[in-house]
């Protein structure tokens, strides 16, 4: 009985550790300094063919929200301010 508890403890501990590291990684990308906006936006806009407008709006959003979602597309849920800032027409303001 004791052996089965200890054999269950290790996988559960590893799962908890992985989950906490993912939460810490998401939180660390959510609070940037203004000086961090340029490289984050450069990567965020790297896959688009409309680099100038993407960079303009990404830098504007980053300056306001101090957050840029990870990756080149999607993942907006990581940055609620970035995700919820809309244009007059109701579309997303931030790339």
UniProtKB/TrEMBL annotation:
Database matches in PANTHER family = EXTENSIN, PROLINE-RICH PROTEIN (PTHR23201), GIBBERELLIN-REGULATED PROTEIN 5 (PTHR23201:SF60)
| Gene name of the encoded protein | LOC110425906
- Pfam families given in the database record: GASA
Q: Which UniProt keywords apply?
A: Gibberellin signaling pathway, Signal
- Organism field: Herrania umbratica
Which family is this protein grouped under? Answer: Belongs to the GASA family.
The Gene Ontology biological process terms listed for this entry are: gibberellic acid mediated signaling pathway
Q: Which residues form the signal peptide?
A: 1-26
For the keyword Transcription regulation, the answer is no
Name the chain's protein. Protein RSI-1-like
